[in-house]
Amino acid sequence: MRYISTRGDAPALDFEQVTLAGLASDGGLYLPETWPSLSTEEIAALRGASYVDTAVAVMAPFVEGTLSREDLRSLCEQAYGRFAHAAVTPLVQLDHQHWLLELFHGPTLAFKDVALQLLGLLFERFLAGSQHHVTVIGATSGDTGSAAIDALAGRAGVDIFMLHPKGRVSEVQRRQMTTVLAPNVHNLALENASFDDCQALVKAMFNDPHFSGTFALSAVNSINWARLMAQVVYYFYAAVRLGAPERPVAFAVPTGNFGDVFAGYVAAKMGLPVAKLIVATNVNDILHRALSAGDYSQGTVVPTPSPSMDIQVSSNFERLLFDLGGRDGHALAAQMQGFEASKAMRLTNAQAGGASALFASDRVDLDDMALAMRWASEDAGQVIDPHTAIGLAAARRAGLPADVPVVTLATAHPAKFGDAVERAIGMRPGLPARVGDLFDREERYATLPGTFEAVTAYIAERAVARA
């Protein structure tokens, strides 16, 4: 399997190279050269399969030529052995049509663990026995940071620098990052910054020839293909339990950066019968505007109780636009450069038409988010976090046929957003016992101005230069 850039000018890479590289050298994102497919018989054979067995079957084509199935299985057993539920990503029924797919049973209580536990092991494997040292730089709106830090803390050959917008992540999210005191972990709280600002700084560092030439940079954000690959698995795992491949299944996905829902698109390209992918946004609704009206224009980020979705530039949307636009890298590069200059862009007819075939979208405000949390609690006995509530609100008003099961991705444990949950349902969820001492742990992080100069100077003093 080879990987190509969405912008057409970076060299094609194999799976190991693309995992360590993260962002392409031309500023684009990597995608498989061709989409692998699973036959109806192969999908049906996943019924009753364990999560690890499903993961090996789904991911094997993407790692072909780099990892054997036996190696992949070993890595998956290690990654998912740390999850607190034997099913890894269990389904919970809400009513006759609606289900939750619980993705928060990993060590940091968020869906990011599903991919990042595996990514940490891949980094370690690919760097083992070499003199190569990787500097991982990431931006987080809350959950990516803690999941990446947990996955990489103490691993040889890797330093991680994680940028977050100061004051714009929940206290639990912040402490899950800043209480990991491993010497290779560096947390940076950026003043007067949004997640988009943090993400833009990460891209600028990758695209700066001097900085990226000095350090071997890699990424853990969903710009890294390996992360998206691992997330494709739970779409298959859920769908076969609800009747696939004979029965189409719909998914409602709360998303800001478009990574989690793009994994559903990949599952559909591989042959999974996906009835609809419902993109659920909060009031920071660039994705809803793009999918419903073709208007991909950047607004001002509004802080909300669902901070992981407080985003106005969705990095992974570029992958979808590339695939729907005939995979013309140079045309997409021009389109994205226009967006980066003007902060506004119209989808082409091919992009808009292709998206409408599979995607629906919705914008969920604070009142409807709270109503969804109350419905889940009072009618289905489930306490859900604000992001999941946005997905569920969109799912329940999507108007899909009654015989189509609708799975809402439950992306975080409700205790990560205790204040918002308590306001909505009058009850504060407790942290699971395995992280119950979080508020007693020492914190360590640096507060910096949100400037390229300040951040790169901080990293340059602490990172290991290329050999």
Automatic annotation (TrEMBL):
The keyword Lyase applies. Residues 87-343 form the Tryptophan synthase beta chain-like PALP domain. Its cofactor is pyridoxal 5'-phosphate. Keywords: Amino-acid biosynthesis, Lyase, Pyridoxal phosphate, Threonine biosynthesis. Its EC number is 4.2.3.1. Pathway: Amino-acid biosynthesis; L-threonine biosynthesis; L-threonine from L-aspartate: step 5/5. InterPro entries: Ser/Thr_deHydtase_PyrdxlP-BS (IPR000634), Thr_synth_N (IPR029144), Thr_synth_N_sf (IPR037158), Thr_synthase-like (IPR004450), Threonine_Synthase (IPR051166), TrpB-like_PALP (IPR001926), TrpB-like_PALP_sf (IPR036052). It comes from the Bacteria. SUPFAM superfamilies: Tryptophan synthase beta subunit-like PLP-dependent enzymes (SSF53686). The keyword Amino-acid biosynthesis applies. One of its GO terms (biological process) is threonine biosynthetic process. Belongs to the threonine synthase family. PANTHER family: THREONINE SYNTHASE FAMILY MEMBER (PTHR42690), THREONINE SYNTHASE-LIKE 2 (PTHR42690:SF1). This is Threonine synthase. It comes from Sphingomonas panacis. The lineage of its organism: Bacteria, Pseudomonadati, Pseudomonadota, Alphaproteobacteria, Sphingomonadales.
